[in-house]
Description:
Layout: H1 3-19, H2 23-34, H3 41-53, H4 57-70, H5 75-87, H6 91-104, H7 109-121, H8 125-138, H9 143-155, H10 159-172, H11 177-189, H12 193-206, H13 211-223, H14 227-240, H15 245-257, H16 261-274, H17 279-292, H18 296-311, E1 331-337, H19 346-353, E2 361-367, H20 374-382, E3 385-388, H21 394-403, E4 408-411, H22 421-424, E5 431-434, E6 449-452, E7 468-471, H23 492-495, E8 499-502, H24 511-523, E9 528-532, H25 540-548, E10 556-559, H26 564-570, E11 576-578, H27 587-594, E12 599-602, H28 611-618, E13 625-626, H29 629-640, H30 643-658, H31 665-686
Parallel strand pairs: 1-2, 1-4, 2-3, 4-5, 5-6, 6-7, 8-9, 8-11, 9-10, 11-12, 12-13
Helix pairs in contact: 1-2, 2-3, 3-4, 3-5, 4-5, 5-6, 5-7, 6-7, 7-8, 8-9, 9-10, 10-11, 11-12, 11-13, 12-13, 13-14, 13-15, 14-15, 15-16, 16-17, 17-18, 24-29
Amino acid sequence: xxxxxxxxxxxxxxxxxxxxxKFGKVLDTLAPLLHSSEAHPEVLNLAAVCLRRxxxxxxxxxxxxxxxxxxxxxxxxxxxxxxxxRDRHRIAEAEIEYGQALAIRPDHxxxxxxxxxxxxxxNRLAGAETILQQCLAIDSTNARxxxxxGDAQNTLGKxxxxxxxxxxxxxxxxxxxxxxCDRGILFNQLHRTTxxxxxxxxxxxxxxxxxxxxxxxxxxxxxSRQLIPAEAAYRKILERDPxxxxxxxxLSAILLDAGLLDEGMSLSERAVASAPDAALTHASLxxxxxxxxxxxxxxxxxxxxxxxxxxxxxLGQHRPHGNNRDPGRRLRIGYVSPDFSGHCQSLFMxxxxxxxxxxxxxxxxxxxxxxxxxxxxxxxxxVDVWRPVRQLSDERLAEQIREDQIDILVDLTMHMxxxxxxxxxxxPAPVQVAWLAYPGTTGMRSIDYRITDPYIDPPGTDxxxxxxxxxxxxxxxxYNPQSREKVQPLPALxxxxxxxxSLNNPCKxxxxxxxxxxxxxxxxxxxxxxxxxxxxxxxDGLIGRLRSNGIDLRRVDFVxxxxxxxxxxxxxxxxxxxDTFPYNGHTTSLDALWMGVPVVxxxxxxxxGRAGLSLLSNLDLTGFVAHSDxxxxxxxxxxxxxLPRLAQLRTTLRARMEMSPLMDGVRFTRxxxxxxxxxxxxxxxxxxxxxx
Length: 692
C-alpha cells in the first residue's frame, strides 16, 4: 500500500471515529501520522480538535499554531484556534484569530458562527446579531442560525424580530424541539400564553423528556391561571428533579396563593438552596417571610442575607455621581416598576403622578410592564418622560438611568415579583428610595431611604430596617379607587344573618388568623364567612386548614379571582371585613372601607401587621383596632351584634374616606415631595457615601 493511500485510509477512519464522538480513539488512529516530521496539516488540525474536546488545551494549541505557521491561510485551523482560545477565556486573542480567518474567507460560515458565539458569551449581543445576519445572508436555510439570531434579538429586547427569526427556524426545521421551546419562552415573556402552550406541547410531542419544554408549559399554564394543571405539571417536574429551582419557586407561589403556607414556604426555601445565585428566587423568599413571621428581625435577617449574596458583589460598580448639587433646583425623580398598568399599584400611583409639581420636579417612569393597557397610557400621560424598559437587563437599565441623570430613584417593587433589586444594587442614582410595594425593608445598602408613616412605624422601630425611615405625616398610602361602584344597603338586613368576609389573598390566611376568625364565628350565631379562593373549588389544603382551625365549612362561601368591578361588588355581600395577621390587608382594606364595609384589624409588631392601624387611624376609627387576639374577637362580635351601627357605617364610610388624608392626593404628594427635597439637600451636603 502506498504511503498516501495509507494516510488517506487512516484519516478516513479517524474522521468516522470523530463523527461518533470517539476523540481518544481518533488520537490513537492518528498517532502514526502525528509523529512524522511532515505531518499533514489536516491530520494536525483534526488531532487538535480532539485534544480540545478532551481538555488537553496546550497540546491542541501547539498543533494548531504549527499548522498556521506552515500554512497561514489555513482558515479551519485559525477558526479552531479561535475556539480554543475562547474556551480558555483569552477573548482578545480569539477574536484576532477569527478576524484573520475572515480576512482570508469573509464568507466562512463556521468562523462567523463561532465569532458570534464569542460575542454572545462576552455580552456583545448587538455584534453577535450582526454576525449571525451575515451568516444568513450567505445561507438563509440554516435553522440553527435563525434560532440563535432569535435568542440574541430576544435578549436585546427586539421581540418582533426575535419572533420572526424563530418562525423562520421553525419553518425550516419543524421537528426541532429546541426551536419550539425558545419560541415558547418568548411567548411566555410576552404573556401570549395560548401560543406558548401550543409551542411547548409541540416540543414535548417531539421530545417528551425535554425539561425546558416541561417547565415552559407549566409556566404558561400558571400565567394563564390554569392553576390546577400548573400545580400538577410542577409536581411532575419535581418527581424527576426534586431540586429544579424554577419548579420549586413557582409551585411555592401557587401553593401560597392557595393558602398552603407551610408547604409553600418550605418549597421557597428549597428553591433558594438549589439556586443560591438566583436573585429573584431569593427575593421571593425574603418577601414571603412577611406573611408568616411575627418577628421583624427575622425578616431583616433574610433581607440582609439576600443583600450579602446578591448586592455585595455589585457594590464595586458604585461610581461617583456627577449630578448638579444645587439643593433648590428642579429635581429629576425616577419611578421604577413592572406594574404601571391595571395592577392595584395604579390605585396609589394615580394620586401621586397626577399631582406632582412639574415646576419643581421632573418625573420619569421606567416601566417593565409586560402588557401595556389603558392605565399604562394614563400614567404615561401624567409624567415628563416614559421609558419602556422591560427588555433591558438590570445592568443596561442601570446605565440608562445614570445617563438620564436621575436624582432620586424610587423602587416601587422591592422584593416582589419582577423586582429590579440587582439594578438598584448598582446605585445608578445618587439617592435611592423604597416605597409602595409593601412597607418593609430591602436589606440593601444601596437603598438609602424607605418611606413610611407614624402608625406603621412608631418611634423606636428604625433598627428593623436597613434603610433610613422617612415618616410622612399622615399615611404610607394615598388611594384612588378607580371606581364609583355604588354602596348597597347593609346585606344583613335582608339576609337575616351577618356576613363576615376577607377578600385578601389566601397567602395571608395564617393559622392564627383562622383561629381568631373561628372565635368570632363561634360567638356570632348564624354568621357566614365569605373568602377569596384562586380556584373553585378551593384547594384541598386550604379546606383542611380551615377545618383544623375550628371553622365550620358549612358556613363558608368562596368567590374566585375577579375583575375589579365584580370584585368591588362582592363587598355588597359583606357586613364586616375581618383582617389578616401577621400581614394585614392593605389594598383590600381600603377597598372594603370604600365600599362601606368596616374593617376589624389586629395590630402586631411587624410593619405589614400595622397597616390596618394606619388606615383606621387616618379615619379616626381606632376602636376597630385590636392589640390582642381576644380583643379582635370581642371587637368583631360587638360590631356584628350592632346592626344599627353597621348600617350607619355603611352610609358614611365612603364620605369619611374622601375627606381623609387617605384620599387627599395633593396633600400626600406635597408631603412626599417635601421628603424628596430633604433627601436631596442631605445628599448635596454630604455627597456619595455608601452606608456600611
